UniProtKB/TrEMBL annotation:
<dbReference type="GO" id="GO:0003723">
    <property type="term" value="F:RNA binding"/>
</dbReference>
<feature type="domain" description="K Homology">
    <location>
        <begin position="177"/>
        <end position="253"/>
    </location>
</feature>
<dbReference type="GO" id="GO:0005737">
    <property type="term" value="C:cytoplasm"/>
</dbReference>
<dbReference type="InterPro" id="IPR004087">
    <property type="entry name" value="KH_dom"/>
</dbReference>
<feature type="domain" description="K Homology">
    <location>
        <begin position="476"/>
        <end position="556"/>
    </location>
</feature>
<dbReference type="InterPro" id="IPR036612">
    <property type="entry name" value="KH_dom_type_1_sf"/>
</dbReference>
<protein>
    <recommendedName>
        <fullName>K Homology domain-containing protein</fullName>
    </recommendedName>
</protein>
Amino acid sequence: MTLETISAVTIKAYCDIPHLFQTNRLWKDIDPSQFSIKGYDGKILLCLSTDLNANNFKFSHSSYKIENDIVSMPVLNKNVSFQSAAHAAVPLIIDDGVHFSRDDLIEKLKPELIKLAIEFDVEIIVTEKSVYERDETEITNAIIYINIVGLISRVQNCELHTTILVQLVQNKIANTPLFIESLDIESSSLIPFCIGVDMTNIKHLASVYKTDIHIPTLLNDDDMSLFAPQVFFSSRIHSLASEAKHEMSQYIEKLKENIYYRSLTSLSPGKLLYIKTYYQEEIFKLMIKYNTYIKITDDSVKFQSSSNEFLAIVIKLFTTSILHEIVEVQMILDGPFEFTDDNILNELHYSDKSHIVFMRNTSNLSQLVVIGSNSHNVKSTKLNEKHQLLQFLTTVFENEKVNSNLVQLRAIFEIHPDYEEFISGKKNGKLTRIMEGAECLLELKMTENDDNINLFLLTNTYKEFLRSYIQVMDELPAEKSFFIPEVYHRPVIGAGGSLIQTTMRKHNVFIQFSNSFLLPRSEFSHLRYDNVIIRCPTKSESNIIHAKQELNVLAQNYGSTQSKSLVNLSAGQYRYILKTSPEVIGQIEKSKNVYILFPFEQPGSEFLLEIRGTFENSEAAARELIDQAFGGEIIFDLETTIKDENDFYNSVIIPFNRVYNIIITLQKNHVTLTYNKNNSLLEKCIEELEKYFLNNKLKITKREQIKDFIHIPPMELQDMTLAEDLKGTQMYYHNYNKNQYTNRDSVPDEIQNTKSYIQYPYYRYGYGY
């Protein structure tokens, strides 16, 4: 038996356009035997990852459209890993008032653009205005556009390098310094490690080192192996770009010591093709959120992570958020109608807009497997419009040639093993109820080689299939995960589970709490992982948001009764804790039963860290955090601000961190040293720092060693509670600050300069100034 996959794709060809320069590598004259484009006889650019022949593609010469100088041709793609052409535009922007010659600029760019075009096998076209995307807003001060056309993986790689080239040119013309550092990455599978959980690595390094970080594409394609991935760091201060590169390089080397792998191998070729074609965005989100690489091959899904815990989480989420949505439906006919290429195109009205993939037995054209998504449209009131796959099947069975010859329909749903009882119900009650209401057969099976459980649905007519399919879909799990501080779990659950049982019965949902203390910690950010899951059948999905709101209110009400201890946390201490002991925060929260509102990004000046718990516990936790995690701290106040900050970074901040292992931060005229209390090089560092101040005529007005980091607020502030967020059930935590006084003269001295800070308690990156 020969099984072939069939998918509808759109081949793109680009028309030659007026330009200022082009590399002239990929343009071809139109071949009338392949294309007949009415009203156009110029050159076209047609990039394909495979040969355009009848064995691979089925298309009509007249089935095309031209829009914005792009020719689009829908075709049937058979058994081919397909990439069509794509394009990207990088504008070169020059500020008003800067004098330059555009012609001279293009002449200087030509050699570099030709190198890029050859390296990435693309066509580069320089134009005066935006092309191929004319519906987008023009950038008014863009003097030229560098357009890249080719296979999508090559375009995205070339776009990154072109962006760096353009940045260098723009800064050179503006006479402003820009330093670029590049870090070679061994494999594309390490790119998620560079990004970090929820992009924490990028955010931290960009913020701390005032550096733009450019990451290569996560595009999941075999063509990516042709290019060595690189991460670029750009900054106006050379030492900062260099240090950001150094930090990321060390982090990657550390993670490479422990890498875990797993594969899902029981997926059909058609389902793998469907995931690769229509679920790239969802895969990107999973890779970024959980620091895990996912690759779709022709025979499996491969996972790679630096944590075994992440690996298990991602595989389960991949199954529940992607595989649960994809259904295979086998149609078996008995009659003259066959699923030939022409019938699929014409009788089934198949196109790339259908979002469908087929599998076909070439020796038996009376059978066809249709693969599609059951993602639903909750706004629709019609059964056949609620699910994407049903929209296509309904159109198919409106054709009497298909409907009258139908023998059997068989749908296969792939379910994670943890959800077997959820789907079947106690003693198969749910499945039995569906079979009693429709003429169908339902069966759960899992063989030794299966990664997941398969739920089979068999019917003899489309009418019964539609009825039973909708009922099965209604019983599939819908769920939402989010974070509630562990210290609030027990009060939210209630004595003997009384509160949580009431919430579950009220909203007809299942709620599960978990402990996230043991999940991996990062040296770039304090991570808060989802630790509450609300689950229910899809038919009751709208209840989840109401149950979540109720849990948040319960948690916030309990939080408002908690005592608060405040700790002064500088930017240097923030970095020191993450670098030396990021696990301490979770350990103290667990042992002292408190919630530490540790910021997710480097805080500004005079930030107050809040610790919530009972009066005794919050204060004890604050003391323990200072003893176990804080470094020593010395602050130098200067008479004036440092004028040449670039030199201070290059000569002091970065070198001293490397040589003396001391973190130095600069805020206005305050220089802060944060260090290990046993650092034997501290005095040498201070001596060199004072020498720098002396040589640069910077007078020290005050030198203070911080001895106690506990902040005691004024009495009138000690009973403040949470303020309700007008946008919903979330609450704001208001830290103690000068903005709480309407009369500035009444602000106590100890908080005169405290910055207003607001933190959402349960939002992953929820703080703002």
